[in-house]
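hey can u check if this looks right to u? its 204 residues, i copy pasted from the old doc so theres a chance i mangled smth
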Amino acid sequence: MTSAIRNAIAVAAAAALLGACASKGQPTAQYDFGPLQQTPASAQVPSAIGALIVADIAGPNALDTERMQYRLLYADARQSRPYAYNQWTATPFQLMTQRMKARIAQAGVKVLSTTDAAASPTVLRMEVNDFAQNFDSATSSTGVVDLRASLFRNHKLVDQKTFTRSSPAPSPDAAGGAQALAAATDAVTADVLAWLATLPPQKE
């Protein structure tokens, strides 16, 4: 048996194991980002930010689903594969929006929705570029979150920046991926807060 054939068999076996991650007939396990943890006082955003409209996070259609997905970077990084018996409680966009709003409010900013447009001229929009559990090998994976944040004031762009964070998964399965992606999302949120704190305050 050639090494190429052995590698192909190993990849197929790993994909089958990850895709199932449960015995036949086992009910679907659902995951979210877990409870919100307290952040240090250093994460507070200056009160000059005032009230902030946080728009719902958007991104590619492939992520607009509750299905949990992963990639085998060592086999074919272009292919996204679904877990068979595991899913999110909401879409990644909804989970991230909820987490971002909670974190920003926790940092001392009044968080408003787009329906409250008359209450604030400052709008934060975020678009996800990547949200994935990537396997470097059959036993090692990382949760990666990449998004672009844009701050608008009075319909004019104030600043825009892209943030990328990764976190190792504690286990090579959906549960580990959920934990890693939650940690990566929290890290990106901290970066966004630090960025907001550097922006010029609204002029009176």
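The helical segments are 3-20, 92-106, 174-198.
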